[in-house]
Amino acid sequence: MNKALLVEQIAKVTKLPKSTCKAALEGFISVIGQALKKEKSVVLTGFGTFSVMKRKTRMGVNPATRQKMKIMGKKVPKFKAGKALKDLVAQ
Fold first, then answer.
1. Residue 65 carries which DSSP code?
2. What is the average pLDDT across 27-56?
């Protein structure tokens, strides 16, 4: 499902205009992104937790040249599903 289909489904369930649903979804994404940028977690009870994970610097291999190279550490977004979401998917 892509963003347009998600907006359409939200509009169908909530009976709100698509423009309102699109604005709400974009606001939701923006707020989560800003929180993660500040390295804060976003916990949605029953749904899951958005957080930032720090990857360590590691050694890798360039597949084209087979030379060893250093892959720098970085921060990446992480999502951990909550119990209610896991139970819903498992049914």
1. T
2. 96
